[in-house]
Specification:
By secondary structure, the chain is an alpha/beta fold. The protein has one domain (7-119, 151-216): Purple Acid Phosphatase, chain A, domain 2 (4-Layer Sandwich), CATH 3.60.21. Helices cover 28% and strands 20% of the residues. The chain has helices at 13-23, 44-58, 68-79, 85-99, 104-112; strands spanning 2-6, 29-33, 62-64, 117-119, 123-126, 159-162, 173-175, 180-182, 192-198, 204-211. A five-stranded mixed β-sheet has the order 3-2-1-9-10. A five-stranded mixed β-sheet has the order 4-5-6-8-7, with no helix packed on it. A hairpin with a 5-residue loop joins β9 and β10 (204-211). α3 (68-79) packs across α5. The longest helix has 15 residues, at 44-58.
């Protein structure tokens, strides 16, 4: 089964829905969204509800991974005020969720169950990738682990697909040395939301991209 991998959504619900409607075939492809569903955009609640509905409807063909923004939300709920996340985007996210009458504990429970990676024999998908120099890549608090890494990736004899660091070109970028694609193209920066379609063997079939719907990001973002 082919994979349809979507980059960082960041609450850009209209753009995410349009991308899926145009390009994803749920009965022939597995959707993998690589984390950072929430924060920054105008509709974190709607984006979460859509993800829940897709998982309910398509089961294993709709996979959502944890990103560093989901981690920060969990830290806030479980350990008290997250003074790093709150001024960055947390206050707005909490306001959105409360306005939508979404119970924060239930949101945290759903987010807490998200996996860090999806992989098979040929492809590994995570939010930020496996770094060259990392002892514990799956430690969620590790600054160069799969939630946070911004250092060069390790060649792991699989295709790595990541997001987390917006591509300066505004287009998905391939790095030959690590055999990896970064598909974060800055949706919350009003650039674009991107996705990559690959075979189960890691062969790239198509890269698609949508400009961000103006409804998804505030003018002062």
């Amino acid at each position: 089964m082919n994979l349809f991998v979507v980059g960082d959504v960041h609450g850009c619900l209209h753009t995410f829905k349009e991308l899926l409607n145009r390009y994803w075939n749920p009965y022939e492809e597995r959707l993998v969204q690589l984390g950072d569903l929430i924060d920054r955009g105008n509709d974190t609640p709607g984006t979460l509800l859509l993800a829940k509905e897709l998982r309910k409807q398509y089961g294993a063909n709709a996979v959502f991974l944890k990103g560093n923004h989901e981690y920060e939300f969990m830290q806030h709920i479980e350990h008290g005020p997250n003074e790093y996340w709150l001024p960055q985007c947390g206050y707005d996210t909490l306001k959105q969720l409360r306005t939508a009458n979404m119970e924060l504990g239930e949101v945290a429970e759903w987010i807490g169950e998200l996996p860090l990676v999806w992989e098979n024999e040929h492809v590994l998908i995570s939010h930020a990738g496996i770094a060259e120099q990392v002892a514990f890549p799956f430690d969620e608090g590790n600054e160069i682990g799969v939630l946070w890494n911004r250092t060069p990736l390790k060649h792991i004899s699989k295709l790595q697909i990541i997001g987390h660091t917006p591509c300066k070109s505004g287009r998905p970028e391939y790095v030959e040395a690590s055999h990896s694609w970064n598909i974060d193209t800055g949706a919350y920066r009003k650039v674009a939301l991107s996705a990559i379609r690959v075979t189960a063997q890691g062969e790239v079939l198509e890269i698609v991209q949508l400009d961000v719907d103006p409804r998804d990001v505030s003018e002062d973002a």
